[in-house]
Structure formats: structure tokens, C-alpha cells
């Protein structure tokens, strides 16, 4: 199963926009090589784009995990969003395929109006601590990602299930 969802009877519609650093600022950091490097290293043969994400943990430590997610397709049914109150979470693709990113600001403990983005295939993201987001949603195989997030004790996951889901559709 590719994760594609059937057309629901009553779904609100989201259309993803291209992922840009400016549009994503309220939710996190876009991880990409853009512009000139901050400096050159390795005998001038490697550009270093330095300190591109704000890792933020209430406690614990940063850890690197590897995820292998099943690809999804548009239209995609967004039924649930989650957030991590104890730490930021970075997703760095181990491929060059676009993936879907869905985020929302907080509205009194629930997600506000979701926003959907599609990466270029050469971008990763770092979600700020406590940012509502959809699940990892690759749009092609393989769905492999390096994930940098908080490793520690205590609950670090909150979920919100929508009474009326959202359907994410490609732009017409």
C-alpha cells in the first residue's frame, strides 16, 4: 500500500506550497545549501554552511536516528498532527526526492490552520520544539531520513486527531 488516501466525503483542502526559509520561519529551520558558504575548509575544497538549525532540548541529549518511512501520494489525508514539547526535531533526507511537510501554529493546545509545503528534494527541516506537524511523509521511495532529536526520559509526544480531516491535494 502506498499510503494514498481515498477521497473523503467531508475533508477540508490544503494545497502545499514550495518550501522556503521565509515561509517556514514560524515553525523551524530549512536545511539546505543556498548562497555562499560561511567558510571554506578541507584545503578550500569544501564549503561549510555553519550552524543552520537551532537544536533545542528541555533536557536529555541530541541523538541521531534513522527512519525508513513508507512513501505516500497526493491526495493525502491528514487526520492527525503531533508535537514534541521537550525538543526540536530535524529531518534530513538520505535521498534527493521531495517530501511533504505539514505544520501548524498552536491554538490553545491544538493545531491552528495547517500549512503544507513540498521540499525541493535537496532540503531538510528542523522543527522547533512544540511545533505541531504531520507525520513523516516521503512522496517517493526510498523514504530514508536521518533524524536528530531529543533522547531522554519523560513524555515528548502529544497528538491531535482532527474531527474533520484535511485533504492535501496537488496544485491544479
Describe what is shown at a glance.
The chain is mostly beta strands and 172 residues long.
How would you summarize the topology of this molecule?
Blueprint: E1 12-14, E2 17-18, H1 21-24, E3 28-31, E4 39-41, E5 46-48, E6 61-68, E7 76-83, E8 89-93, E9 99-104, E10 106-107, E11 110-111, E12 115-118, E13 124-127, E14 132-133, E15 137-138, E16 144-151, E17 158-168
Parallel strand pairs: 1-17, 2-12
Antiparallel strand pairs: 3-13, 4-5, 6-16, 7-17, 8-13, 8-16, 9-12, 9-14, 9-15, 10-11
Describe the structure.
The structure is a single chain. This protein has 172 residues and is mainly beta. The protein has one domain (12-168): Jelly Rolls (Sandwich), CATH 2.60.120. The chain contains 1 helix and 17 strands. Strands 2, 9, 12, 14 and 15 form a 5-stranded mixed β-sheet that branches. Strands 3-13-8-16-6 form a 5-stranded antiparallel β-sheet, with no helix packed on it. A 3-stranded mixed β-sheet has the order 1-17-7, with no helix packed on it. A hairpin with a 4-residue loop joins strand 4 and strand 5. The longest helix has 4 residues, at 21-24. The chain starts with 11 loop residues before the first strand and ends with a strand. The relative contact order is 0.32. The model has no long low-confidence stretch (mean pLDDT 94).
Helix content: under 10%
Question: What characteristic shape results from the CA principal axes?
Answer: globular
As a whole number of angstroms, the C-alpha radius of gyration is 17 Å
Number of structural units classed as domains: 1
